[in-house]
Amino acid sequence: VSYSTYEQYGAPGAMSKSSSESQTRSIIREVAAAKASETKVRWLHFEGINTPTLDMLCEEFKLAPPKIEGSETTQRLVMMRHRDPALRFFGTHAFLTMQLLDREDCEGDIPLVTDDQVSFIYVPEMRLIVSVTEDRDIESDFTNLQSLLVNGSSVCNKNGAHPAMLLALLADKFVDDAFPLAEELGDFLEVLSHAMVSREGIAYNQPVDKTRMQLWRMRRFSIRVKRLCETYEEDALNLFGDDAFQTYIEAVEKQSENLEHVCDMYITRCLAILERVEVYQNQKTNDTLFILTIITVMMVPSQFLTGMWGMNFVNMPELGLSWGYWLFLALIPTFMIGIFVLLKMGGYLEDTPMDIDPVHYVKKRIAEFKARGKKDAEGGAPASPE
Question: What is the 3-state secondary structure of the chain?
Fold first, then answer.
């Protein structure tokens, strides 16, 4: 656990961390016994928490007895996995959740995007905020933010800042940290697109589909942040009735919408690449069927002769010929060559109905236009509008 206190008027705060279970319990008792200050906000951050410690926390801060909906308690809500942003009010404190995106490196593959739940307990009368993450992380994403608050150089340290401004600042940080990951996935798609231009294939299907799945998770994260901002803005219980807080939340909501648009743009790019892969696969299948069709057509004469001379009727003059077998072997390639020539003359063996390369034609026309413009410039005549 880490315990941070910061002033709302720019004065330096303090921060301490525990390295054992006993130190964690001591910090909880110390914070519970301290009196609330009108200019100071206290923040307890747990990176992973067990049930005994959570029960002690709720007992020391008197958070356990109140219930909502007959069965939900603060302890149970902290241990649950919430799909949507949850906001519950227990009379003395409020419980809410956010999602934190995490990046996992995979050797030789695209980074994986996972979402971790962060639970918050906001106690307005004590000017206290408790945050709990699902897992313990040695390199915490909250360390820099804690140092920023203690040094008095954040939006939470401005004069008269609302204690819940920390919740808005954390939501803003979570969204801002997601943009570089989205751009990294976008760069990966750009590389795949250039690779497909130089060499097409169906092997691009799997990495593009993986990238789309990661972008879909990021889009879901942005939608959840947007719903959380809407919950803050509704504020039916008047817990966050501060103009600066609401203005900040509106900015965070716009950022979440921008992140959603970025994810939608890259998801559309994934679908375009997958369509190109599907077109290539269909073209490859059509080419294979085309070759098999040509072979089948060329083998029709041999099948016809085999079926006709294999009937074994009594009156079949060809069966008595001593050179009939050699005649059969000579007729097969003759018919096959004849059919091939007819197909070639009819244009059925052409890969494309165009007689020119479109890329070469465009380059040629551009070169002609530049040469004509240069000639007109040297002769003093205006350039052709073409």
Answer: CEEEEEECCCCCCEEEECCCHHHHHHHHHHHHHCCCCCCEEEEEEEECCCHHHHHHHHHHCCCCCCCECCCECHHHHHHCCCCCCCEEECCCCEEEEEEEEEEECCCCCCCEEEEEEEEEEEECCCCEEEEEECCCCCCCCCHHHHHHHHCCCCHHHCCCCCCCHHHHHHHHHHHHHHHHHHHHHHHHHHHHHHHHHHCCCHHHHHHHHHHHHHHHHHHHHHHHHHHHHHHHHHCCCCCCCCHHHHHHHHHHHHHHHHHHHHHHHHHHHHHHHHHHHHHHHHHHHHHHHHHHHHHHHHCHHHHHHHHHHCCCCCCCHHHHCCCHHHHHHHHHHHHHHHHHHHHHHCCCCCCCCCCCCHHHHHHHHHHHHHHHHHHHHHHCCCCCCC
% the chain with pLDDT above 90: 12
Two structure tokens written together for 262: 């970025």
- Residue 148 main-chain phi, psi, to 5 deg: -65, -40
pLDDT at position 151 is: 78
Sheet-wide strand order for 128-133: 14-17, 2-7, 40-47, 128-133, 112-123, 94-104, 87-89
Q: Let me know: does 251 contact 172? Beta carbons within 8 Å.
A: yes
Q: Which residues pair with 46 in a beta bridge?
A: 132
* Residues written for the chain: 386
Terminal Cα distance for the chain, rounded = 72
Whole-number average pLDDT of the chain: 82
Please name the residue that has the structure tokens 């697109």.
193
Low-confidence spans in the chain with pLDDT less than 50? 66-69, 138, 352-355, 383-386
pTM attached to this predicted model = 0.74
Q: Which residues contact 286 (CB under 8 A, 6 or more apart)?
A: none
